[in-house]
Design brief:
Helix content: 55-70%
Radius of gyration: 24 Å
Shape: elongated
Order of helices and strands: HHHHHH
Number of domains: 2
Number of strands: 0
Mean pLDDT: 77
Largest sheet: none
Structural class: mainly alpha
Distance between the termini: 69 Å
Low-confidence stretches: 1-6
Length: 148
């Protein structure tokens, strides 16, 4: 039976152990391994807050024993696309897919901060809808109790 292929990128185990060996290898073009590490650092930025929580999330997302903890600690990466020679096209595709995606659930809407103005407008509209609905319900209850 065919299995559905995940559209999520995967970072395989032993990245840290293989990095030193791959850097000195002549198999890959000059700068490829370093740029790959920079790309991983871009996709998995260094955690400044609750590291244990992020590591638990990362382990949950990776099936079995494939999650490499080194991927969460690859350092700091440049956000300038011009600096990526080997992974530029794939990073551009990933950015386009990210920009085109929209949140599907309330929790995703809550955490989605890509467009700050839209985020604040949405939650302000929800707040005022609930507030005015509550005021109207209280007014209706008061009006009904006066008529009885």
């Amino acid at each position: 039976m065919l299995q559905a292929v995940s559209r999520l990128p995967r970072v395989f185990r032993d990245l840290g152990a293989n990095t030193a060996n791959l850097s000195s290898s002549t198999i890959f073009p000059d700068g490829f391994v370093e740029e790959t590490l920079q790309t991983i650092a871009l996709l998995f930025p260094k955690v400044t807050g609750n590291k244990a929580r992020v590591k638990r999330w990362y382990k949950r997302k990776a099936p079995g024993d494939e999650a490499d903890p080194v991927a969460l600690d690859c350092g700091k990466a440049s956000r300038r696309i011009e600096e990526y020679k080997f992974w530029r096209d794939r990073l551009v595709l990933l950015k386009e897919a990210y920009d085109e995606s929209r949140p599907q659930s309330i929790t995703q809407w809550w955490h989605d901060r890509r467009d700050g103005l839209q985020w604040y407008a949405l939650w302000l509209a929800i707040f005022f809808t609930v507030l005015f609905g509550l005021i109207q319900s209280i007014e209706g209850a008061i009006s009904l109790s006066r008529n009885l």
